[in-house]
Amino acid sequence: MEAILLAGGLGTRLYSVTRDNYPKCLAKVNGVPFLHYILWNFRNQGVKRFVLAVSHLSDMVEQEVRHHFADWDIDFSIEREPLGTGGAIRQALALCRSEHVIVANADSFIEFSLLKFVHEMRENESELGLVCTEVDDLSRFGAANIEQGKLIGFSEKGKSGKGFINAGIYWLNTSNDAFLGQPERFSFEKNVLANRELHINVFKTKGLFFDIGTPGDFAGAQRLVDLNKGLFSTSPKIVEE
Fold first, then answer.
1. Residue 97 vs residues 92, 100, 121: alpha-carbon distances, Å
2. DSSP string, 54-90
3. Whole-angstrom Cα distance, residue 74 to residue 52?
4. How far apart are CA 159 and CA 201, in angstroms?
5. 50-104 pLDDT, tens per residue?
6. pTM score above 0.90
C-alpha cells in the first residue's frame, strides 16, 4: 500500500507552542515528534511507501524524515506556495505509483483498521472513499450524513448527540476525475467531498480520535498518548492479514 500524508499546514493556531520554529507535524507529544507516530501507525498496518505533501518549513520535515527513516521508501511533494488540501493531494498524486492510495493528515490520529478499510473499498470497487468515526458529541464537528454506506453531505457544526464525522482518511484512485477542472489551489473537503455528484463510499469506525491543531488539543494529546501507549508505537509490529 501507498499513502500520502498531508504535512504542509501553517500551524497558525498552534503558534504559542511552536513559535514557528518548527512545523506542526514535528511538535513533540510525550517527547516524540507527532509525525513519527503517524508514520509508524501506517507502516505497522501495511503501508510500504509514503509521499509527504509538505510546504511550510518543508526542509525541516525532510531533514527529520531522512534522518530517522532513512531506509524507508519516502518521497516528498514540496509546495512552493500553499495549494490547499486539494491542490496538495493533486500534486502528490503525480509521485504515486499505485492505482489507489491512502490519504491522511499528519496532525491527527485515528484508531482504525486500515486493512478492513482497504478491503471494503476494494470490495465496493470504490474510486473515492473516506473513514468516518463515531463521536459522542457532535457539537465541535460537522456531522457526516451517510445513507446506505454513501456520503451524501455534511451538516454544520452545532448538532448535539452522537454521530459520525470525517476522520480525514481517504481512499483515492490516482487518476480520479474529481480533480479535473479544479483551480490550482482548492479545498479537498469543500470542492470534492461536498460534490453531491460524486459517489463517495464511507467506512465507519469508532476509536480514539484527536488532532494537535490547537494548544488545548496539543495538551490533550500528551495525556491521550500516555493513556493509550499501546497504540503509539515507534517500532515494527506484526501486521495481521
1. 11, 9, 18
2. E-TTHHHHHHHHHHHSTTSEEEEEE-SS--HHHHHHH
3. 7
4. 23
5. 999 999 999 999 999 999 999 999 999 999 998 999 999 999 999 999 999 999 9
6. yes
